[in-house]
Structure formats: structure tokens, C-alpha cells
Amino acid sequence: MSALVQPxxxxxxxxxxxxxxxRVPPCAVVIFGASGDLSKRKLLPSLYRLFYERRISPNFxxxxxxxxxxSDDRFRGVMKESVSNFLEDAPxxxxxxxxxxxxxxxxxxxxxxxxxxxxxxxxxxxxEKSHQTAGNVLFYLSTQPSHYAEAILELGQHNLNHGTGWRxxxxxxxxxxDLDSARKLNDEIHKVFDESEVYRIxxxxxxxxxxxxxxxxxxxxxFEPLWNRRYVDHVQITAAESIGVEGRGAYYQEAGALRDMxxxxxxxxxxxxxxxxxxxxxxxxxxxxxxxxxxSVRVMKPEDVSTHAVAGQYGPGKVGGQDLPxxxxxxxxxxxxxxxxxxxxxxxxxxxxxxxxxxxxRTGKRLxxxxxxxxxxFKAPPLGLFTQxxxxxxxxxxxxxxxxxxxxEEGISLRFLSKSPGSxxxxxxxxxxxxxxxxxxxxxxxxxxxxxxxxxxxxxTLYTRQDMVxxxxxxxxxxxxxxxxxxxxxxxxxxxxxxxRTSDEMLARNGHVWRIP
Length: 517
Ligand SMILES: NC(=O)c1ccc[n+]([C@@H]2O[C@H](COP(=O)([O-])OP(=O)(O)OC[C@H]3O[C@@H](n4cnc5c(N)ncnc54)[C@H](OP(=O)(O)O)[C@@H]3O)[C@@H](O)[C@H]2O)c1
What we know:
The protein is α/β, with parallel strands linked by helices. Helix content is 34%, strand content 21%. It is globular, with a radius of gyration of 24 Å.
């Protein structure tokens, strides 16, 4: 198979204004890891919701597979409970479920056992006839990442990568644990599937607000002229979680915040904020621009890591009067763990638009609240005509700030200066707000709903391509390498605070301060 074959643009998402009206062809969805957490919490509820809204073809079938022995009926029972529990912002309808459940099947099997794939093929042949799925198959690898390569090779060995219809494969994150392993995994996948058939999921790209960044930037003419080094002072991207590792200590200890969030989600968000406008809005051009941006991010020299990246780990703390354990006190975590539960990085983008503008990216667990946002901090006016009156006396006015809120409350706010009522020229910042919920008044599809429909429709725009994944590993790899040989004085922030002091110092060196979101 060729290493990188650009898929032909099949659909045009921006022109497809009525996204719900997208035509999705008949197909079978095979979920490996069907008894797992992701399948129960996200995949089945999303598929049910898509069925409920008639956004997928009536000629569809879901075949779940994992080692747990279950009959079709038992699988339907387990999934009914999950769907009714995890359906977000939507009621569960018993009649719709009955009809949906007729399309659910289960094949027990071990991914390492070749016989499992024969059983799977028999089931696929059967549903192709019974549900007229036209031979189209979407494989979803929702298993531990250590199984991806083996499962894909077995699909190839059993000729399941070919059929009467199309074949596609969705691969969950993490895609590799470093640059080398990501490259190796790509090589293994390309022995079986063409790049145009590979859908690497990054569910942040499926979030409505992240997609809206492109509409906001390229559908309006008034922001884009300011979207560059002449007017933007710096950018802050924050993904804060208030929760700890929630029983996933063993997994998290191997990953850490930089790998778990910045390498994938936040670098893709940064690429969306900073990329050039595509000449045409199709999957190839949008992904070309994202990839180009990621390749323009300066790859740090080892000696720059200590000044451009900060690792943190939470210790015990108090939130809302409740005592919380430190990371090292969590179950399955080593008592002297060196894992980063907080990471902050200063990225510099070496292109004409962004030269000299720092992009500060931070993420962490056990921070004071759950919030993900992007703050574009504009430069101050060239002449300071006004001062802002505050309780502690006059201070310099705060420059314009544009905040894109990704979660929990989705929207966009623009802060600007206004004259306070009354005599005299007293000014203070005010905010102009757009709120997704109140402006559109309809339920926003979850990222997994959007991404599943896109994969069935053959639109990879919101999926990451091989070159994007490798470029994003490239920019975090020097940090991972230096950190692997470092001994941190952890814990260095208390649960319930905004991270280590060294993170504030990183920004202070440039005269900047982290916003409190
Ligand atoms: N959970 C999330 O919110 C989330 C978010 C983002 C990404 N992800 C990614 O999604 C993937 C799945 O995550 P998860 O949380 O659902 O994991 P999980 O709960 O541990 O589920 C793993 C699944 O794989 C099956 N499995 C394990 N070994 C197998 C084998 N040898 N053969 C066949 N099936 C096997 C397990 O079922 P049996 O034991 O019955 O075989 C189970 O269904 C991972 O790559 C994860 O990184 C998860």
C-alpha cells in the first residue's frame, strides 16, 4: 500500500449546511472492545442517537466483539442499560430501542486468536444479507492500543479489508506512545489499509466549538485581518480538569498529561486556531493546512525544554472543603511516580503569520474547575489614552481578549473597553457574548455522533492524517525525551490549585500571566 494517498473529497462539510441531512450509506459497524468503557459510554449511545434522529441508514448493523462471552440478546441487554444511562441531553425511547436493537449483534472472540476473525466474517456475511448493508464495513478499534497493529494485520490476513463495498477503520487514541511507535504503527496499518481508509480519531476535532473556529475565522471578514503577529500578543489554550485519575491510575501513569492531551487534542486545537485558510473547504485542503501548521511549530532543542515546558504533579489538597489525595496516593500509582498530571508548553510557530507570538498550552488534572478554552490576547493600543478605575486605584487598561469556550459552556466572548456611564472618561472592560445553546436552541450533537457519521459518509476532514499525527509527535518528542531523564520534585502543586509556580514563571519571563478561566 502507498504510504500516503490523499482521499478524494467526497463531501463538502461547510456547504453541507444541513449536516443532519447528510446521506449516510448502508453499512455494518464492527466495534472491537464492545464490552469496554468507551463503547458503553460513547459509541453505543451515539449510534442509538443517530438512529433515533434517522441520521444513519436504516440498513445498518452493529457487530460488537470482545472476549467476554455473550449472546446477541445478552449484548443487547447490556447495551440497553448503558445507552439509557449515558445518553446525553436526550430521553431514552423504548420503542426506538426495540427497533435499534434488532440491528445489534455480538461475536465473542480474542483479537489474538485467528479463529475470531472467521467468526466475524460469517457474521458480516449474514448481516450483509439480513440488513442489506451493501458490503460496507466500518471497523472501530476501541481496544487497548497494544492490540491495534495485531488486529489490523489479522483483518488483512482474513481478507476482511476487502469486500463488495468499502472498508474503513477508525483507530482510537493514543496513536503510538512516541514518534517512533506512531511511525511503526502507520507502517503496519498501511500494509492492510490505504491511508484513505484510515480514520484516526481525535474527538476534540469533532466538537462543535472546535469546528466553529473555522467558520468564525473563515466565514467572517472582520476577524481574519487581525489574526496575526501584528495584532495578537499571545494565545493561551487551556484544558483543565477538576477530576483526578478516577481509577485509571495504571493507564495514566504510563501516559501523563503531555502525551494524553497536548500531543493529540491540544496540538490539533492549536493547528485549527493558527492554520492558514484552505483554498477549498474539503478534507484534503483543510487537513493539508492543519498539517502545514504543525510542521511550522518550532521543534525544541533539548536545552530549551526547561524554559519552554513545565511538568507538574498534584499533591494532596482541599476542594470545596473536601480532602483530596495526591496523585501518588491514588490506587495503582507508584509512591514515587514521576508522571506529569500537569503540563504547560510554550510553542512558537515559525511562519510569517505567527513569528514571535507565543502559543501557551496547558492541561492538568485536579485543577480548580473543568474548563477548556482558547484565549486570543490582542496587543494593547499603541497609545494608552485611558486608565481603568479599579477599587485599588487606576491601572493600565486590559487589551482586547477573544475567548472561544469549548467546554463546558460552549460559546465565544469578546472583551473590549467601554466608557462607564457618568461624567468623566472612566472606562472598564465589558464583554460581548455568543452562547451556542441560547443562539441555536437545539441540542448539539456529541463529538462521537459527528465523527461516526462522518466516517460512514466517507468524510475524513475531522480525522487526523498520518502526517498530522507524526508532526504532532515531532513537536512533543524533545520534551518527552528530556523529561524521561529528569527527576522532578513532585508533587509541585496542591489538588484544587492552578498548577505549579514554575508554570507562572514560564509566562512571566515573557511578561505574560495565565488567565483564570
Ligand atoms: N474510555 C474513554 O473515555 C476513552 C477516551 C478516549 C480514548 N479511549 C481509547 O479507547 C480505547 C478503549 O478504551 P476503553 O476505556 O473502552 O478500554 P476498556 O474499558 O479497557 O475496554 C477494552 C476492551 O477491549 C476488550 N479486549 C481486551 N483485550 C482483548 C483481546 N485480547 N481480544 C478482544 N478484546 C479484548 C475488552 O473486553 P474483554 O475483556 O471482554 O475482552 C474491552 O471490551 C483505548 O484505546 C482508549 O485509549 C477511551
